[in-house]
Design a protein that fits this description.
Low-confidence stretches: 1-12, 50-57, 334-338
Helix content: 10-25%
CATH superfamily of one domain: TonB-dependent receptor, plug domain
Strand content: 25-35%
Family: Belongs to the TonB-dependent receptor family.
InterPro entries: Plug_dom, Plug_dom_sf, TonB-dep_rcpt-like
Radius of gyration: 36 Å
Number of helices: 5
CATH class of one domain: Mainly Beta
Keywords: Cell outer membrane, Membrane, Receptor, Signal, Transmembrane, Transmembrane beta strand, Transport
Number of strands: 17
Strand order of the largest sheet: 1-6-7-4-5
CATH topology of one domain: Ferric Hydroxamate Uptake Protein, Chain A, domain 1
Membrane topology: Multi-pass membrane protein
GO cellular component, one term: cell outer membrane
Mean pLDDT: 75
Largest sheet: 5 strands, mixed
CATH architecture of one domain: Beta Complex
């Protein structure tokens, strides 16, 4: 076949035939090239890639994956409460403040809870730094728990309160299982003054407070803000209903020295006989309801200076003093032998 072509077609015609075959091959390959180019163009038109987990990216409350509440200074003041602890209990549905029924310091040093968990599992931060806990143990009926006394921070010096209503133990540890409360102090050069006065419907429990705060600029790159607050709470006592079926002994032993398992709500177990001695006595004498008398004075300072765009010198702190008196009753025995 090749010999026939060389014999009947000159060299020029052979070149023309080769060019024609080449054009035909390119024409057949053109659709494939077009499809490949279209695929490449489609691959380049991707949506914006969002990298999660980066600590440098800013997020707002609206687009955050975790439930976050932000309570402003105006919202705290609008509650009309005496201190930060009671204000958060009013403004934040997920924040729980148990009633004052504990004796001793339990009626004075109170602890808030997130999601009704152990108070020591709620981490409290001030300007992003850990706030120290109190020295009282067994807070709000949780054995071994310690909490942070939010009532010692001047409310007038707070710019906002950020609450993470989700566990953050992976970042902060076991003290953030219930959530995180971050208190941001004011840093502007403005000031404010406010007072309030109130009492219960029965006329007791009179309370009042006075708050003042102010700030100034330190040159062109610094600030200083100070706050002070005085709170006074009058005593209020309420009767506590008697529950005859309640056994006040936390550990009851029989005559053989064996522990007796109590019924629901520390009631008499099934099949047991009540002790006639306890028929007309207060089954829960150590519990008190009402509000103890207290006077609290607190101070705060928040300072900062930008040395450069990357370096800032800062410092903040609070000081508080509380004098309180609470009604107490006699204590019961730890164990009771039947």
């Amino acid at each position: 076949m090749l010999e026939l072509i060389h014999k009947h077609y000159p060299a020029a015609r052979l070149r023309q035939l080769a060019h024609a075959v080449s054009v035909a091959v390119l024409a057949l390959a053109a659709p494939g090239v077009a499809h490949a180019q279209a695929a490449l163009d489609g691959a380049g038109a991707l949506d914006a890639v969002i990298v999660t987990g980066a600590r440098g990216t800013g997020r707002t409350v609206a687009n955050s994956a975790a439930p976050i509440d932000v309570i402003s200074a105006q919202q705290l003041q609008a509650t009309g409460k005496l201190n930060l602890l009671d204000a958060l209990d009013t403004a934040l549905p997920s924040f729980n403040l148990p009633a004052r029924v504990q004796p001793d310091l339990g009626s004075i040093v109170r602890a808030g809870q997130l999601r009704n968990l152990d108070p020591s599992h709620t981490l409290v931060l001030v300007n992003g730094k850990r706030r120290h806990t109190t020295a009282i143990v067994n807070e709000d009926g949780f054995p071994g728990s310690v909490a942070t006394d939010l009532a010692l921070i001047p409310t007038g010096a707070i710019a906002r309160v950020e609450i993470l209503r989700d566990g953050a133990s992976a970042i902060y540890g076991s003290d953030a299982i219930a959530g995180v409360i971050n208190i941001i102090l004011k840093s502007d050069d403005k000031g404010s003054f406010s007072t309030q006065l109130g009492s219960t419907y029965d006329g007791d429990g009179t309370n009042g407070s006075a708050r003042i705060d102010g700030g100034t600029r330190l040159g062109e790159h610094g600030f200083a803000h100070f706050g002070a607050e005085v709170q006074r709470q009058g005593i209020a006592v309420r009767n506590f209903s008697l529950n005859p079926g309640y056994l006040s002994y936390p550990a009851v032993r029989n005559s053989d020295g064996q522990l007796v398992k109590l019924g629901p709500n520390n009631s008499l177990p099934a099949g047991a006989s009540p002790n006639p001695v306890e028929a007309n006595r207060n089954s829960n004498p150590w519990r008190n309801t009402g509000v103890p008398q207290s006077t609290t004075a607190s101070l705060s300072a928040n300072l900062g200076y930008d040395v450069s765009n990357e370096v800032q010198l800062y410092g903040f702190g609070t000081y508080a003093h509380r004098n309180a008196r609470s009604a107490q009753n006699f204590r019961i025995a730890q164990y009771h032998f039947q």
